[in-house]
Specification:
single chain
Amino acid sequence: MDHNHMRLLERRKRKTKFIPPIMMLTAGLITSILCLVKGYELVKSMFILFIVMLLFAILGTIIKSIMDRFRTEMDYSDYFDEDGEIVEK
């Protein structure tokens, strides 16, 4: 693989790297609010929060890996010459 192709892959991975933490923190926020509204004890709500955040971290990682795997890779080398200028066809 050439250097440009490696940079493209790294840039695509950076776009999806925040999916697991965002899913986990959103689920944790919703769980915390529901535990407060329902009036659960602290130990019970912390256990529920831990399980929910763990499950959503795993789910977010799975979704991220699926998105990374199925992201189409387009080859733009036909549109540029050796100097990086756009070639008109």
